[in-house]
Amino acid sequence: MNNDKRPNPSSERSKKWLTESLLELMTQTPYSKITIQDISKNADLVRQTFYKNYASKDDILENYIGSLLVNFGKKFFEENKFDMKTFLKSHFDFWSNNSEFLELLIKNNLTYLLDKQYKKRIAKLVDVLIKKKFDTDSAKHKYALAFMSGALVNVLVEWSYSGLEYSIDDLSDLINIIMTGQYFANI
């Protein structure tokens, strides 16, 4: 028996179509009003195909956000320059290029999905940035990851509200100063 864990091409294609369908619908309809039937019909698939791949429409977005963050991580690690300022610049540049999706999440009050995926995926990045391993089961590390993911998501939301008017370099410098404690040092 073949225990190969390769993705099923048909399932991957259906997931892609369902994701594209949901994102398209979100540009026209509030997320709360979009049904599984709407997503499936717009993708020219039956509802059973949806349920073979996802449990809910949130799962589509979580999967998509997860893949975006994986792609961001790959690009960041390819740069091979692991300091906070480079990370922040890469991070804001990445979301500047994905600002339409970010705006859809914000408009539909779905940034909690972004935060959830950040918490899942940020540990490896944080470990590289701080250049040492912590006990990932420690309360300190969990709080540090929650702080980092919450800060990054909330800064993205605020930046989006301002129309991305703050330059990526200036924003990266500011957040780096805040995260290194320099911003509040003179208070």
TrEMBL record:
Keyword tags: DNA-binding
HTH tetR-type domain span: 12-72
Pfam families cross-referenced by the UniProt entry: TetR_C_8, TetR_N
Record-annotated DNA-binding residue ranges: 35-54
Endpoints of the signal sequence: none
Gene3D superfamilies noted in UniProt: Tetracycline Repressor, domain 2
Alphabetical list of SUPFAM superfamilies matching this protein: Homeodomain-like
Keyword rRNA-binding: no
InterPro entries the record matches: Homeodomain-like_sf, HTH-type_Tx_Regulator, HTH_TetR, TetR_C_Firmicutes
PANTHER family xref list: ACREF/ENVCD OPERON REPRESSOR-RELATED, ACREF_ENVCD OPERON REPRESSOR-RELATED
Protein name: TetR family transcriptional regulator
Lineage: Bacteria, Bacillati, Bacillota, Clostridia, Eubacteriales
